[in-house]
């Protein structure tokens, strides 16, 4: 098994064909895998890394519109449309990924209705993320948004310890660093994680979920219903939306 949920759940013929072409790579936070406005030449299947879709304004401000982890692959919508990517894809949580040529994946997709259906379901899930995060950014408290962000990053990377700074989170959430500092103060005082020297350790995903905004549970429920998300890792059950 590769550790990527999409690859591991493909039909054997499709999976074996792709596996023969994949190249493992290490992904570091800040690595630009697909530049905004770039055409898709290769796609990345994270196994332990977590990627972010970031949209930048001409003035240099940014906002994250989706996370991509071991459930899927990078640059999916522009790959399907064969169009330039309207956002930047960069490394968010350090880890490993498998790289495939976009032309190879397109060849497999053309002959495999089951793969095409899986890619469309993932596309819908990533679109739902972007829509839900637009609501989240407009209406939810910053500490609840930070809790949601950390919890999702942990789930989609399969890690509870990762290198992250308050500046990094401010970049992804499109807020001032001072807002993230205050959110960290609230969440750390509740004992939800430890943070120092750029390393963050989540002490309880269940407790963190209790402080996250409802966007997390809604997206998790959607991903489960579509079958695009792997089973939760980390030894704690996930709460369901009610």
Describe the structure.
The protein has helices spanning 5-8, 12-19, 76-81, 102-111, 113-139, 142-157, 166-173, 177-189, 205-211, 214-226; strands at residues 23-27, 32-34, 42-46, 50-56, 62-68, 88-93, 95-101, 161-163, 193-196, 199-202. The protein is α+β, with helices and mostly antiparallel strands. It folds into 2 domains: 5-135, Jelly Rolls; 139-226, Winged helix-like DNA-binding domain superfamily/Winged helix DNA-binding domain (Arc Repressor Mutant, subunit A, Orthogonal Bundle), CATH 1.10.10.10. The chain has a 4-stranded antiparallel beta sheet with strand order 2-6-4-5. A 3-stranded antiparallel beta sheet has the order 1-7-3. Helix 4 (102-111) packs across helix 5 and helix 7 crosses helix 8 (177-189). It is globular and about 55 Å long. The chain starts with a helix and ends in a 16-residue tail after the last helix. Residues 234-242 have low confidence and may be disordered.
Keyword list:
242 residues, alpha+beta, Jelly Rolls, Arc Repressor Mutant, subunit A, 2 domains, four-stranded antiparallel β-sheet, three-stranded antiparallel β-sheet, 10 strands, 46% helix, disordered C terminus
Number of domains: 2
Q: How confident is the prediction overall: mean pLDDT? A: 92
Tell me what portion of residues adopts beta-strand conformation: 15-25%
The CATH superfamily title of the largest domain? Jelly Rolls
The SSE order reads HHEEEEEHEEHHHEHHEEHH
Number of strands: 10
CATH class of the largest domain: Mainly Beta
Give the termini separation: 34 Å
Q: If strands are numbered along the chain, what order do they take across the biggest sheet?
A: 2-6-4-5
The CATH architecture designation of the largest domain is: Sandwich
Q: What kind of sheet is the major sheet?
A: 4 strands, antiparallel
Task: Kindly provide the radius of gyration, computed on alpha-carbon positions and rounded to a whole number of angstroms.
Answer: 17 Å
């Amino acid at each position: 098994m590769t550790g990527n949920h999409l690859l591991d759940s493909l039909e054997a013929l499709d999976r074996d064909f792709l596996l023969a072409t994949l190249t493992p790579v290490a992904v570091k936070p800040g690595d630009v895998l697909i530049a905004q406005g770039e055409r898709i030449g290769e796609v990345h299947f994270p196994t332990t890394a977590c990627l972010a879709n970031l949209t930048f304004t001409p003035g240099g401000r940014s906002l994250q519109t989706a996370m991509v982890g071991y459930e899927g692959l990078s640059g999916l919508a522009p790959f399907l449309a064969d169009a330039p990517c309207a956002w930047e894809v960069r490394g968010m949580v350090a880890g490993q990924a498998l790289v495939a040529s976009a032309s190879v994946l397109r060849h497999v997709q053309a002959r495999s209705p089951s793969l095409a259906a899986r890619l469309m379901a993932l596309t819908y899930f990533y679109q739902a993320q972007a829509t839900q995060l637009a609501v989240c950014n407009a209406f939810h408290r910053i500490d609840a948004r930070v809790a949601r962000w950390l919890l999702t990053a942990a789930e989609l990377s399969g890690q509870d310890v990762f290198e992250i700074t308050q500046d990094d989170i401010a970049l992804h959430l499109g807020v001032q660093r001072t807002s993230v500092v205050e959110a960290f103060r609230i969440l750390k005082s509740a004992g939800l994680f430890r943070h120092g020297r750029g390393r963050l350790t989540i002490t309880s995903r269940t407790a963190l979920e209790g402080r996250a905004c409802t966007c997390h549970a809604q997206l998790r429920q959607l991903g489960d219903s579509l079958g695009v998300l792997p089973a939760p890792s980390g030894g704690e059950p996930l709460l369901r939306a009610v």
